[in-house]
Amino acid sequence: MDIFRKIAEERIQEAIEKGLFDDLPGKGRPIRLEDETWIPEDLRIAYRLLKKANFLPPELELRKEIVSLRSLIDTIDSDKERMRRLRELNYKIMRLNLTRERPMRLDDECRIIERLLIRHDTSRG
Fold this sequence. Notes:
Layout: H1 3-18, H2 44-52, H3 58-75, H4 79-99, H5 106-124
Helix pairs in contact: 3-4
C-alpha cells in the first residue's frame, strides 16, 4: 500500500470514529454506481438521454430479448417451435456479437443450447 492510500485510509477511519459520516444522505442504502465503460465515449451523452427517457440502448435491448428468449425456450414442449426459437436465439446472439468489440463466448452459448436440448430430451422420458 502506498503512502497516500495509507493516509487516506487513516483519515477515513478517523472520520468514521468521530461519527462524521453518520448523517450522510442515503446512509444504509447501497451506492448506485453507473458503469459506462462499455459505452463508447462519443455515445455516452446520447445513452444517458435515452436512459432518462426510459429507452434502452440497442445492445441492452438485444440482451434483454436474449434473456427473455432463453426463459421462453425452457417452457416450450413442441420440438418444431423450440428449434425455431433456438434459431431466433442464435441470430440475436450473433447480432449482439457483431455490435461488441469482444464477442460473447460461443462455448458458453453452445453449452446453454445443449443444456436446453438435453433437458427437453430427459423430460420426454
